[in-house]
Design goal:
Helix content: 40-55%
Strand content: 5-15%
Radius of gyration: 16 Å
Shape: elongated
Structural class: mainly alpha
Mean pLDDT: 76
Distance between the termini: 43 Å
Largest sheet: 2 strands, antiparallel
Number of helices: 2
């Protein structure tokens, strides 16, 4: 299963810091043996994971900004 792995500690939630650097997308599990993680990493790099992450993050940021804008518009209308 493809999942988003958080490789670093982040402060705050994604909602409070929408444009923060996020973890990488990967098929590897943290508890997989090192050799398995390395093989998965090589395959992911060779097949364009970085580009996929970039597109994913752009879409995520746009969705977050759209939701925040709608919330602000709704609150100012009241």
């Amino acid at each position: 299963m493809f999942r988003k792995s958080l490789n670093q500690q982040t402060t705050g939630s994604d909602q409070s810091e929408p444009l923060q650097k996020r973890g990488k997308l990967t098929y590897a599990e943290e508890d997989d043996p090192l050799i398995k993680r390395l093989i998965i990493e090589i395959i992911e790099r060779a097949t364009g994971r970085k580009k996929l992450e970039r597109v994913y993050n752009e879409i995520y940021d746009l969705d977050y900004l759209r939701a925040a804008t709608e919330k602000l518009e709704n609150s100012s209308a009241n």
